[in-house]
Design a protein that fits this description.
Blueprint lengths: L1 H29 L25 E8 L3 H12 L4 E4 L5 H4 L1 H4 L3 E3 L4 H5 L7 H11 L6 H20 L21 E3 L7 H13 L4 E2 L2 E8 L5 E8 L5 E12 L8 H7 L1 H9 L3 E3 L8 H8 L4 E14 L6 E2 L4 H4 L5 E3 L13 H5 L11 E5 L1 H5 L1 H17 L5 E4 L2 H7 L4 H17 L20 E17 L6 E3 L5 E7 L6 H4 L9 H18 L3 H14 L10 H17 L5
Parallel strand pairs: 1-2, 1-8, 2-5, 8-17, 9-15
Antiparallel strand pairs: 3-4, 6-7, 7-8, 10-11, 10-15, 12-13, 13-15, 14-15, 16-17
Helix pairs in contact: 1-11, 2-8, 2-19, 6-7, 7-19, 9-10, 16-17
The structure holds flavin-adenine dinucleotide.
The site of flavin-adenine dinucleotide (FAD) has 43 residues, from helix 2, helix 4, strand 3, strand 6 and strand 15.
Length: 579
């Protein structure tokens, strides 16, 4: 259980800092030397901090180099800023959440949409769709800014960063007025976005301190954020990096840290009590470090709404899961979802049942079992979605999630499902598929294939936690607000460190919205730090796009990404990158 202990430790470290900040701040305010004004009796909630010396200096310091931080660095460079990044892992392309993501990125009015037969999408229609998904509770100004830049950002990722996208535009249940999800090549995951971003950062010579974890943000006595403290994870040395114009917090959410989930997200705390298993589909180093820093700075923090679904196959005893099974994308070809009693419980062909309406919350222990035959496993989809997960479990000897056998009864009973009931359900399924009768369980029209060819395969699908719809409150320029809703000078945030406002009630997951908000508010932060007008920023982006990418787009291979998944699990077991 190394991961649990380590994540717990890193979480406690943040809490201790926060607690220390509260106490010391209150003391400072009471002695009337507090930063809130001479003679003030208002206790301050943060401790002024300034190191004796600085090891590095830049105008803009970007903390965390995923899609949000990566886009911010490139935009800042193009606007003439001296920018540098600090990144905890050793690879932007392998360890960002975007790499592991489904890869959808939404944007309105792109050239790719026009070329794909969607010529008239626009920010106003996108705004309507986004607000409807969040019950009209999203922040209108922020959503307005996001939608306005969203199309340009996708064009920019393709032309400036050389990202390649799959043909066509993916539809989604949220983007009602127009389809607007763009997926990067090769297989639609976010790997291709990060390859283009990382290549561009390298080619532009933007310095990034790798394997270096930001541990604290320095806020001077005058209230301005002036830099950060970080730790070199190889030498253990503490370094201080000065930011003369701005610090961007882009360290992602708390995806992999169950303790932080429970702390910030009440709904997940409840689910963890009831569900058979809850695991994360996030790269493990994305563990909520930045949230404690926000607390320490007295930045406003939303209670966490969360993206959670029932889509993970657990891979090890450390609590890592893989959501790459994406049940809705291929179950329609002939896999069924059984509950613990051996009955089908939902519509296997839709994203809705496991991520939007979350009907799995009402089944026993919030767990279900994906059952399919060997023909489906050997098909293109089975090889893409299931085989890598089965291989990972087989390789590591982890036998609690995946099982294969020659009879339906045997695979079912392995997971304590009554074998006779499972066999009956499969027989009913085969009957409907072959005769074309009405499906009593769902309104499906595409029924897939019968389940006939042994060996049969069964995967236990459990609750996965994903994106943190939480974090701090920002302005449309990505400036961070404090608990009095005042701008903290010099501090900016994007992505999962500031994502709540765009999701509103989060009743429906905004597909493609997390990568998109991260990229767009990263770019907005760079524009604000550079102090340029919208017109100047647009002209700069246009010039960069006309100049083209820094290198010929790299053709990336799906299996590169699969290999990175294996590598990160090995690193997780070693505890590296948790400090
Ligand atoms: C399985 C899965 C599927 C998803 N599907 C989609 C999808 O289809 N569409 C969509 O829009 N979104 C999707 N998402 C969510 C989306 O990928 C993320 O919300 C988005 O990429 C977050 O970007 P970010 O820049 O905020 O942070 P991240 O990409 O999380 O980057 C944070 C970076 O900061 C680094 N870091 C962390 N702590 C520190 C520290 N202390 N010091 C320095 N660096 C640090 C991390 O190593 C990382 O590189 C998915 C995510 C997952 C995991």
């Amino acid at each position: 259980m190394m991961k649990k202990e380590l994540t717990r430790r890193s979480f406690l470290m943040g809490s201790a800092l926060a607690a220390a900040g509260m106490a010391a701040g209150a003391l400072t305010g009471c002695t009337s030397t507090g930063v809130k004004g001479e003679g003030s009796t208002v206790p301050i909630k943060w401790v002024p901090s300034e190191p004796e010396s600085w090891d590095y200096e830049a105008e803009m310091v970007v903390c965390g180099c995923g899609i949000g931080g990566g886009c911010a660095m490139i935009e800042a460079h193009d606007l003439g800023l001296k920018v540098m990044g600090i990144e905890k892992s050793n690879s932007m392309r392998e360890f960002a959440a975007c790499t592991w993501s489904g890869g959808s990125l939404c944007g309105a009015g792109t050239e790719h949409q026009a070329a794909s037969g969607i010529p008239d999408d626009n920010p106003e229609d996108m705004k309507k769709d986004i607000q409807a998904a969040g019950d009209e509770l999203g922040d209108p100004e922020l959503i307005d800014a996001w939608c306005k830049l969203s199309g340009e950002t996708i064009d920019w990722l393709m032309k400036r960063c050389g990202c390649q996208v799959l043909d066509g535009i993916r539809p989604s249940e949220v983007h009602i007025t127009h389809s607007r999800n763009h997926n990067s090549k090769p297989e639609g995951s976010g790997y291709g976005w990060m390859v283009g971003i990382e290549n561009t950062v390298k080619d532009l010579g933007i310095p990034v301190l790798m394997e270096t974890a930001v541990t604290k943000v320095h806020r001077a006595a005058n209230g301005r954020v002036i830099g950060v403290e970080a730790k070199d994870l190889n030498t253990g040395k503490t370094i201080n990096v000065k930011a003369t114009k701005g610090v961007l917090l882009a360290m992602g959410g708390y995806g992999s840290n169950m303790d932080v989930w429970k702390y910030y997200s009440p709904v997940m705390k409840d689910i963890m009590k009831v569900a058979k298993k809850v695991s994360t589909s996030y790269p493990y180093q994305i563990s909520g470090d930045g949230y404690h820093m926000l607390d320490d700075l007295d930045a406003y923090q939303y209670p966490g709404q969360s993206l959670y679904g029932c889509a993970n196959v657990v891979l090890d005893d450390l609590g890592n899961g893989d959501a790459g099974i994406l049940p809705h994308r291929w179950s329609k070809y002939g896999a069924i979802w059984l509950n613990q009693e051996g009955n089908r419980w939902g519509n296997e062909s839709t994203f809705r049942d496991y991520y939007v309406t979350r009907s799995w919350r009402y089944i026993t222990k919030m767990v279900y079992y994906m059952l399919f035959d060997d023909d489906l496993l050997k098909s293109k989809n089975g090889q893409l979605y299931a085989q890598p997960i089965i291989d990972t479990c087989t390789k590591s000897g982890y036998t609690k999630s995946v099982y294969s056998a020659n009879t339906i009864e045997e695979v079912a009973e392995y997971f304590d499902i009554p074998g006779d009931q499972a066999a009956k359900t499969v027989a009913e399924w085969n009957e409907i598929v072959t005769t074309g009768g009405k499906d009593p369980v769902s309104d499906r029209t595409e029924m897939g294939a019968p389940i006939l060819k042994p060996p049969f395969h069964i995967l236990e699908i459990t609750v996965s936690v994903g994106t943190s719809k939480a974090g701090t409150m920002i302005t449309p320029k990505a400036e961070v607000l404090d608990n009095d809703r005042k701008v903290i000078p010099g501090l900016y945030a994007c992505g999962e460190m500031a994502s709540q406002q765009c999701h509103g009630s989060a009743r429906q997951h905004i597909s493609g919205g997390c990568n998109s908000t991260a990229a767009n508010f990263g770019r907005y932060a760079a524009r604000a730090v550079a102090g340029v007008t919208d017109e100047a920023a647009t002209a700069s982006a246009k010039a960069a796009m006309e100049a083209g990418p820094t290198r010929t787009p790299e053709v990336v291979d799906f299996w590169d990404r699969a290999a990175s998944g294996v590598a990160i699990r090995e690193l997780a077991a070693s505890g590296k990158y948790l400090y």
